[in-house]
Amino acid sequence: MAPRFCSLLQKPPTSVGAGKKVGEYPIKKTNAIDPIRRARIPTSILPPPPFPHSPARFDLLRRLVSPMGSASENGVREHLLDVDGGEGEGAPAAVAGMPKIRVRGLSRRSEASGEEILRGVDLDVPRGVVVGVIGPSGSGKSTLLRALNRLWEPAPGAVLLDGVDICAIDVLALRRRVGMLFQLPAMFDGTVADNVRYGPQLRGKKLTDAEVQSLLSLADLDPALCSRPASELSVGQAQRVALARTLANDPEVLLLDEPTSALDPISTQNIEEAIVRLKKTRGLTTVMVSHSVKQIQRIADLVCLVVAGEVVEVLPPSGLSEAKHPMARRFLELS
Amino acid sequence: MLKPLAATAVVGMAVALSFTQRLGLEGEMLYAIARSFLQLSVIGFVLQFIFTQKSAVWILLAYLFMVTVAGYTAGQRARHVPRGKYIACVSILAGTAVTMFLLVVLSVFPFTPRYIIPVAGMMVGNAMTVTGVTMKKLREDVKMQRNVVETALALGATPRQATLQQVKRSLVIALSPVIDNAKTVGLIALPGAMTGLIMGGASPLEAIQLQIVVMNMLMGASTVSSILSTYLCWPAFFTNAFQLNDAVFSD
């Protein structure tokens, strides 16, 4: 099967043509066999351009595996989210044509059983987007996420941040740049303010009360919570304090490991809104692992399907029904 | 030799009670008593020999032997800690050696076998218990609160910063008995060193002086040993890239 190319244009169309609306992005899928089809993605889900003068164009390149599971023509399965750099000449080299995170051939075996957890994962995460990672339990989603900030050690050259091997970056600096939120929020001893101040304090910087309150607001929390003991918070509040605490380090990337799986629907909505707001206001690159397909469809710009330690599909949220991999289809049908 | 043999009558009572109550501890009791009798007899002859020697080498050899056995025992208690026996040995050696050095330099004790070996024995025994508990508790706490530790690591903390709460808790638990002992000394029970001196004919005031020195040195040696053991545990608990070592916390 020939590779499919799908380009998401950042710039809204200037004229209203047939089948197009102002403020919507046409997705053109070209295939040797299939006729040209069009889908629309509302402007609201796409990130702001990284630079005012360079509307970025996101090229979503995916080589789909045939239903029988054989690899594409060159014998290699590739599931890449490539960012084509902005046209503006002033764009720095780090941004132009380079994804925020690039994963190549990431593999891991279980030390206990020797079983493969990740099998040569290839993935590019564009800057300023929310990438949702979904798949069955035990498929390696969390392991993939933990490799991105070296909570487990990937092979040298397997994970690049802004084109630099993360194994070559000082691990403490890396973890400040790539923040992580876990499934269950762990609160440290002390008040909410003490928790929010934790990260900057590690490197000798003390946040003012105003800064703490501003971070709490950013995480959709009442700034008056500052002086409250962290142990008294509900799980939903604790998760948002954990988000504020992570944001206190001013990260470039946010890794979310099922951050709402232990929360009630209202708390879940609060977290989701905070994530979307952060993408819009800060252009924060986010990689979010979730079991909920509906949640991913609500907030993700791109969806990455992981099955048995492999990235088998990378699709826009609206195109999940087009997944080709049998296990991925089964997972999506049952979700 | 008649007195110790006569005292075994008390053990006979304990064995009889174990038998009648069907506790099944008779064999273990008899083995323990026989072993202690044998060990103490051998140690008695060894000490008799060392006390007659002029060379300091014998003091150091006896001291190193005690430290090695103590390190092995403490390491057994914390058997899930990689290289636990070495960590315990180094911690106990450092804690007791520093304390001993200070006591000798400050002329609290003369550097003679008659003083150094019994004093070292008390310190090493105490440091062994505290170090074993510290290491075991620290591993358990880090394992139990793995999510807290990993959250701290993910925020850019070093292993030391990430395990501060767990280290503090394990040290408090390990050192509490030593501190409580110091608080209640003489009120509940008269300590061994003091009792020995009084029974040996020394005046209670002399015995109390020595006991104060003993309490101080036990607290000093135990604190140094236990804190050092936490520092030495970090390389075993974490990788060079500040990740929790899965092999240590898997079971």
From TrEMBL, chain A:
<keyword id="KW-0547">Nucleotide-binding</keyword>
<dbReference type="GO" id="GO:0010044">
    <property type="term" value="P:response to aluminum ion"/>
</dbReference>
<dbReference type="GO" id="GO:0005460">
    <property type="term" value="F:UDP-glucose transmembrane transporter activity"/>
</dbReference>
<keyword id="KW-0813">Transport</keyword>
<feature type="domain" description="ABC transporter">
    <location>
        <begin position="101"/>
        <end position="333"/>
    </location>
</feature>
<dbReference type="GO" id="GO:0012506">
    <property type="term" value="C:vesicle membrane"/>
</dbReference>
<dbReference type="GO" id="GO:0005315">
    <property type="term" value="F:phosphate transmembrane transporter activity"/>
</dbReference>
<protein>
    <recommendedName>
        <fullName>ABC transporter domain-containing protein</fullName>
    </recommendedName>
</protein>
<dbReference type="GO" id="GO:0016887">
    <property type="term" value="F:ATP hydrolysis activity"/>
</dbReference>
<dbReference type="InterPro" id="IPR003439">
    <property type="entry name" value="ABC_transporter-like_ATP-bd"/>
</dbReference>
<keyword id="KW-0067">ATP-binding</keyword>
<dbReference type="InterPro" id="IPR017871">
    <property type="entry name" value="ABC_transporter-like_CS"/>
</dbReference>
<dbReference type="InterPro" id="IPR003593">
    <property type="entry name" value="AAA+_ATPase"/>
</dbReference>
<dbReference type="GO" id="GO:0035435">
    <property type="term" value="P:phosphate ion transmembrane transport"/>
</dbReference>
<dbReference type="Pfam" id="PF00005">
    <property type="entry name" value="ABC_tran"/>
</dbReference>
<dbReference type="GO" id="GO:0005524">
    <property type="term" value="F:ATP binding"/>
</dbReference>
<dbReference type="InterPro" id="IPR027417">
    <property type="entry name" value="P-loop_NTPase"/>
</dbReference>
<dbReference type="InterPro" id="IPR005670">
    <property type="entry name" value="PstB-like"/>
</dbReference>
<comment type="similarity">
    <text>Belongs to the ABC transporter superfamily. ABCI family.</text>
</comment>
UniProtKB/TrEMBL annotation, chain B:
<keyword id="KW-0472">Membrane</keyword>
<dbReference type="GO" id="GO:0010044">
    <property type="term" value="P:response to aluminum ion"/>
</dbReference>
<feature type="transmembrane region" description="Helical">
    <location>
        <begin position="32"/>
        <end position="51"/>
    </location>
</feature>
<keyword id="KW-0812">Transmembrane</keyword>
<feature type="transmembrane region" description="Helical">
    <location>
        <begin position="6"/>
        <end position="25"/>
    </location>
</feature>
<feature type="transmembrane region" description="Helical">
    <location>
        <begin position="57"/>
        <end position="74"/>
    </location>
</feature>
<comment type="similarity">
    <text>Belongs to the UPF0014 family.</text>
</comment>
<keyword id="KW-1133">Transmembrane helix</keyword>
<dbReference type="GO" id="GO:0005886">
    <property type="term" value="C:plasma membrane"/>
</dbReference>
<protein>
    <submittedName>
        <fullName>Uncharacterized protein</fullName>
    </submittedName>
</protein>
<dbReference type="GO" id="GO:0012506">
    <property type="term" value="C:vesicle membrane"/>
</dbReference>
<feature type="transmembrane region" description="Helical">
    <location>
        <begin position="115"/>
        <end position="135"/>
    </location>
</feature>
<dbReference type="Pfam" id="PF03649">
    <property type="entry name" value="UPF0014"/>
</dbReference>
<dbReference type="GO" id="GO:0005460">
    <property type="term" value="F:UDP-glucose transmembrane transporter activity"/>
</dbReference>
<dbReference type="InterPro" id="IPR005226">
    <property type="entry name" value="UPF0014_fam"/>
</dbReference>
<feature type="transmembrane region" description="Helical">
    <location>
        <begin position="86"/>
        <end position="109"/>
    </location>
</feature>
